[in-house]
Specification:
6 helices, 72% helix
Length: 145
């Protein structure tokens, strides 16, 4: 869901790049909002969370959870698997090695793109953020089904 838009326009996801990569990019390009709490970033993240919420509800229904606890364990388990896949494969392997997803003018920054700690910490944040749609989806599932 993210890889194709990232290849087409990596600048659209600039807020997800490490700060040293962003700063190198801004040396030769116009500065745009890249803070996590900027309006554009929050809109993108909220749309992603809404899509995740619908997806999680469908998966909980597919699995056939019988109560809130089962629904939450299924949803958060899936969230964790996706989060780890994003960190350990997409970020550590693909993002670090595919030049097509690098910001223009930062292609030479191999070491910066291989920052495992940065992506791991962001993965922890993702797991914490994932509690919100998983709890909401589990509650909605119990109320609606």
């Amino acid at each position: 869901m993210i890889l194709i838009p990232l290849i087409k326009n990596p600048v659209w996801w600039i807020h997800d790049f490490p700060k040293d990569i962003q700063e190198e990019y801004f040396k030769t390009h116009e500065r745009i909002p890249s803070e996590f709490f900027s309006v554009k970033v929050l809109i993108k993240k909220c749309i992603g969370l809404l899509i995740a919420l619908v997806f999680i509800l469908l998966l909980i229904g597919f699995v056939g959870a019988r109560n809130f606890t089962e629904a939450f364990l299924v949803s958060y388990g899936l969230w964790t698997i996706i989060d780890w896949y994003d960190c350990f494969f997409l970020d550590w392997v693909l993002f670090a090695n595919i030049k097509a997803v690098r910001l223009p003018g930062t292609e030479h920054m191999d070491k910066a793109y291989h920052q495992k700690t940065y992506h791991f910490v962001r993965s922890i944040y993702g797991m914490l953020i994932g509690l919100i749609p998983c709890l909401v989806a589990s509650g909605l599932y119990v109320l609606l089904f």
